[in-house]
Amino acid sequence: MKLIEPKELKKKLKDKENIQLIDIREPYEYEDGALCNENIPLDKMMTSTDRISIDKPVIIYCRTSRRSSSIIYMLEKKFNFKNLYCLVGGYSGYMEDGES
């Protein structure tokens, strides 16, 4: 499984790189703050693969990266995705990383 550190994601966002960022937290978690405009809750991911880009890096995150690493494993296994990245530490890790 490919991983991306919060610092690296911040650089990609700052540089406006062509990536897709998907928040898989529950809607109530997403409403408390998010890194992107795309929320596909974990329980909807396996039936929402049409919303996942296949031609650019896709970074998937949850609160701590536990749920995102599990769903990435399942998506890679079942649908053969090769472009998925798990945000190390998830949303919490991103927010705790003091550098902008």
Characterise this structure.
The structure is a single chain. The protein is of the alpha/beta class and 100 residues long. It has one domain: Rhodanese-like domain (Oxidized Rhodanese, domain 1), CATH 3.40.250. The protein has 4 helices and 4 strands. The chain has helices at residues 6-14, 27-31, 66-79, 90-96; strands at 2-4, 20-23, 58-61, 84-87. β3, α3 (66-79) and β4 form a beta-alpha-beta unit. The protein starts with a strand and ends with a helix. 25% of the residues are buried.
Give the helix/strand layout.
Blueprint: E1 2-4, H1 6-14, E2 20-23, H2 27-31, E3 58-61, H3 66-79, E4 84-87, H4 90-96
Parallel strand pairs: 1-4, 2-3, 3-4
